[in-house]
Amino acid sequence: MRSYFSDFPKTALQASYWLFVIYLLLPLALMMAISFKDANFVAFPIDKWTLKWYAQVLQDKQFLEACLYSIFIAVMTTLFATIIGVWIALLISAEGIMARSVIFALACLPAVVPGLINAISLRIFIRVLDIPTGTGAIILGHTVHAVPFVVIMVLTRLRSMPNNLVDAARDLGADSFVAFMRVTLPYLVPALAGGMVFCVLTSIDDFVRTFFLGGYQTTLPMLIFAKVQGGMSPEINAMATLVLIVTAAIGLYAEHFTRRSRM
C-alpha cells in the first residue's frame, strides 16, 4: 500500500504527459486522415481513400510558387537574424559592457510583444521610412521576430564555453577575429543550428506580419488562408500535411545534428 501511494505522483505525471501528447497529436492525425478522403468536403466517416488531393497539390503552380517564395523569405530571414543575433549575444557576453540586462530585454522584446501589435508597428515603421510593402518588408518583419531565438540560444551556449579556449588561441598569436572564427564559432554550431531552425520555421509559419507587410505575391500561409475563405476541403488538408511533414523532418534532423555536435 505504501509503495502504491509513493508511486502515485510519478504515475499521475506520466499519465498527464501522455494525455497532453494525445491532445496535441489527435487534431493533426485527424487533419492528415481527411487529406486522403475521396470527397470534396471535410467530414467523417471516410468511405473511400485516395491520393488525388496530393497529386493535385503537387501540380498546383500557385502552391509551388508560394512554397518557393516562403523558402526564399525564410532563408534570407535566417541569414540576417543569425548575424544580428550572434552579434547581440557576443555584445551581451563581452566584459565591461554596461546595462546587459537592458540590451537583453530589448533584444528579446519582439518575442513577447503580441504578433498583431508587432505587425501594426512594423507597418507604421515602413511607411515612415517609405519602404514599399513586399519581400523586403516581410524579411524585415520576420527578422525582427526571429532575432530573439538566436540571441537566447547563442547566449546560453556562450555561457557554457570555457574562457581558457579563447585565451589559449590568443596566447598562440590569434587576434580577435581569428579566435572567433576558429574557436568561438565552431563551439556555437549546435546553438546556431537550433536557432536557425527556429528562424526557418517561424518565418514559414508567420501569417500576421506577412499579412500586414506583404505585397501581391503570396506566401504559403497567405495562400492557405485564401483557400480557407472559400471553404474547407481535403486539398487544404493535403497542403497542411505536406507542410507538417517537411517541418517535422527539419526539426528532427536539427535535433539529431545538435546532439551529434554536442558529443
TrEMBL record:
Pfam family, one: BPD_transp_1
Location in the cell: Cell membrane
Domain called ABC transmembrane type-1: residue spans: 67-254
Entry annotated with the keyword Transcription: no
GO cellular component: plasma membrane
InterPro entries: Bact_Polyamine_Transport, MetI-like, MetI-like_sf
Entry keyword set: Cell membrane, Membrane, Transmembrane, Transmembrane helix, Transport
Primary localisation category: membrane
TM region positions: 12-34, 68-90, 102-126, 138-158, 179-204, 236-254
GO biological process: one example: transmembrane transport
Membrane topology, as annotated: Multi-pass membrane protein
Domain of life: Bacteria
Family named by the database record: Belongs to the binding-protein-dependent transport system permease family. CysTW subfamily.
PANTHER family linked to this entry: PUTRESCINE TRANSPORT SYSTEM PERMEASE PROTEIN POTI
Protein's name in the database: ABC transporter permease
